[in-house]
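User: We ran a pulldown and think these components assemble together. Before we commit to crystallization trials, I'd like a predicted model of the whole complex to look at. Sequences follow.
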Amino acid sequence: MMKRVMILALVLLLVGLCVGPLTVAAAGFPERPVTYSVPWPPGGQSDVEARRQQPMLEKILGVKVIVQYKPGGGGSLGWSELIKQKPDGYFICGINIPHIVLQPLARGDAGYKTEQLWPISLFQATPIGLAIMKDAPFKTLEDLIAHAKKNPGAITCGGSGTWSGHHIAHLQFQKLTGVTMTYVPHKGAAPQVAAFLGGHVKAIWGNSNDLVTHKERIRVLAFGTTKRFPHFPDTPTFKELGVDLLASIDRGVAAPPGTPAKIIKVLEKAFLKITGDPKVQDQMLKEGFVTLQMGSKESKTYIAEKVKVYQPIVKEFKK
Amino acid sequence: MFEAAFLGLAKVFQLGNFFCLVIGVIFGIVIGALPGLTATMGLALLIPFTFTMTPAMGLIMLGGIYVGAMYGDAIPAVLINTPGTPAAIATTFDGFPLAQKGMAQHGLVAAALASAYGSLLANIVLATSAPPLAEASLKFGPPEYFWLGIFGLTIIATLAVGSLVKGLLAGALGLLLSTIGIAPIGGDIRLTFGYTELQGGVELIVALIGFFCLPEILSSFIAKRQATYSAEKIIPRFSVVREVIISLLKMPVLMLRSSAIGTIIGIAPGAGGNIASLVSYNEAVRWDKNPKEFGKGTIKGVAASEAANSAMAPGSLVPLLTLGIPGSPPAAVILGALMLHGMRPGHELFSTHATTTFAFIMSMLLAAGLVTVIGSFGSFLYPRILNIPARHLAPGIIFMTILGSYSIRNNILDVWIMFLFGVIGFISNKLKFHPAPIVLGLILGPYVEEGLVQSVLCGRAGGSILAYMFLRPISLVLIALCILSALWPLYASWRSKGKIGEKIL
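Assistant: Here's a predicted model for the assembly, 824 residues in total across the polymer chains.
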C-alpha cells in the first residue's frame, strides 16, 4: 500500500514538473534562459555577433542568454535543428542570407525549408565587393570585363564556398555582363583572402570587413550595395556601372516555425534595440560592416525577394 | 621595437594582468585536457568576459588559454589514449604506451617541458620576424597544400607498423570517411545515405575519441579484465622531473626540429596543429638511430609531438597579427577579440598598439614558463587517476567520451558515430590494423581534395594544369620530399640489413 502511494506521489510530481513550465511560459516571456544557437564554429563572424549581443540581450530580456554552437553543413545542421525545436521563443538561432535561401534550392533536401525559419530580425549586412590587387594590369571594372571577354575563363575569382553569397554573386555577374570567369571556391574567408594576397587567384569576391582590413594592398572595383560603402567612398556600386547586381551576406536570428507573434515581438524589440544603439552601429561600421534594423515582417519580405531572384539562377547552373 | 617589448613585458607583470594570465593558463589546461572541448571553444567562451577588460588584459588571458590548451591536450593523450584536442594525436602514439609501462609521469613531464620549449621558440620567432615570414607564407597556394597533404599521407609508411598494405587500406578508409558530407567544391551531397544530419561530415574529434579511446577501454577492461587501466601501479617521484630534463637536454636536434616544424606549419594559413604534430613525430622517427623504440613508449615521441603543436600556436599568430589572416581556428577567435577591441591587424598593431601587442606576445612567453611549473607539479597528481580501480574508472571515461563527442557540435548522432568507430577500432586492433592511418586520412583528405580541385581550376585558367601543379618552386621541394619520404622505408630496411650483415661478418 505504502509503495503504491509513493508511486502515485512520484507520478504526480513528474506530471507537475512537466506541466509546471508550460503554465509559466504562458504567463510572460521570457521567464527562463534563452538559448541562442550559432550554426557555425566558434570564432566566426556569426559567433562574434552573438557574443557582442549576449550581454545586451541579457540586460534587455532580464534572463540569461546561452550561446551554443551547432556547426556543420555550412549552417544547415543548425537550421534543421532549429525547426525541430519547441516554438516557445526559448530557442533561437542565427541565420545567414543567402545561405538559408540557396541551400534548400541547391541541395534539394537541406534538412529545412527557407520558409520554416521564422525571422525575428536581420541586424547586420556584409556588402560583397569585387576586388583585385593594386598592381593588377586592369584598373576599372570595364577593363576587367573587356579582358574577361577576350579571354574567357582566364580570370580566376576566389570566393568562399559553393552555393554561397560569393558564388551566387559570381554567377549573377557572369549572367549580367555575359563574361566567363573561373570561380575558385575556398573553405571560408581566411584561406580565400590568403590565396588572393598570395596571387593565387586574380580577383576575389570579398566580404566588406576583409576588404577594409586589406585596404592598402587592394583595389575594390565595385560593391554590391545600393549606396556607396562608407569605407570606400571612391568605389562605385555595380548599379552605378550599369550592372544590376546586389550582393551581401546578411546576418539575423530566427525562431522555430509556429512561434506566437507575441513572443517574436519581444525578441524583435530586443534585437532592434541593440542595433539601434549608436555605439553598436559605430563598432560595426569600424569593423567593416553595415548595421541593419529589419524587423520580423520586413525580414520575411526581404528573404522571399531573394528566393525569387536566386531560384532561376540556381536552376540554370544546376542542370 | 625593444622599447615596446619591454613596455609590454612590464604590462604583463601588472598584478591584475598577471593574475589573468595564470587563470588563463589553468583554464586553458583544463579545456585542453577535456576531450571535446577545444582551444577554439575555450577562447570563444571567454570573449564576452574580455569586453569589460582592457585590451591588454583580455589578450593576455586569451594568450594564456591558447598556450595552456596546447599542453593540456597531452594529459588525456598520455593517460587514456585520447587526445584532448586533435593537435595531440601524435602524443598518444608514445604517451599511452609509456603510461602502460607505469611511466605516465615521464610522459607528462616530457609533454609539459616540450610544450613550453616549442612555445618559447615560436614566440621568439613571432616577436622578432613576423612580417617577412607572413609575406612568405602567402606563397603557399593550392598546389602547395595539395603536396603538403600528399607528404602527410606518406606518414602512413611510418605509422603502419608491420604491414604497409594494412596501413594503406586504413588510410584509404580514412580518406573515404573524409568525403562524407557536402563536397567543398561543387556542393554535392556525398555518402549521407539520406540523413541530413550527416551533411556536416565526420567530426575529427569524434573519430579520435572513437578510434583511440574506446578500443583501449574495451580491450583492457572488458576483454582482458584488467583491475586497473595501466598494468603497473604508478608512484610519482621527484627524481622523474630531473631525469626527463636531462634526457630532453640530450636531444637538442629533435627539440629544435620539432619546434621549427610546428612554427612553419603554424605560419602556413591553411594547416593546423594536428598536421604539425604528425609531421614532427614522423620526422622524429625517421631521423632517430633506433626508430624501433617509437610506438612502444619513448619520451622522444611525446616531446616531438608536443613541441610541435605548442610551437604551432604562436606560429599561427604570425599571419594573424601582421596580415589579419588567422593561421588556425583558435587564431580566428583571437582575431575576433582584436576587432572587438578596435585593433586592426597589420602595421597598426606594431605601431599604434605596439605595447598591447607585445604584452600579448610576452604573455605567451611567460605562459610557457607557467606551463613548465604547473606541468611538473601536476605530474604528481594526474597519473594517480590510473591507480583508480577499473570498475570505477572505466564508466567515468566512457561517460566523458559521450560528453566530449556530444559537446563538440551538440549533436547526438556524433555519439553514435563515436561508438560505431569504437567498435570498428576494437575489431581492427585485433586484426592488427592501427587506427592512426584512418585518422590521418580523415585529417588530410580535405587538404588533398581542395588543393587538387583548386589547382585544376587555377591551372586550367592559366593554360596548363600540369605546369601549375608541378613547376612551382615550393611545390618542387614538396614533391621531392614526398618522393624521398615514400622511398625512405626501402632505404631504412636496406640500412638495417646492412648493419645486421656487418655484425654477422
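Chain A touches chain B through 59 residues (CB under 8 Å). That may be worth checking against your pulldown data before setting up trials.

User: Thanks, that helps.
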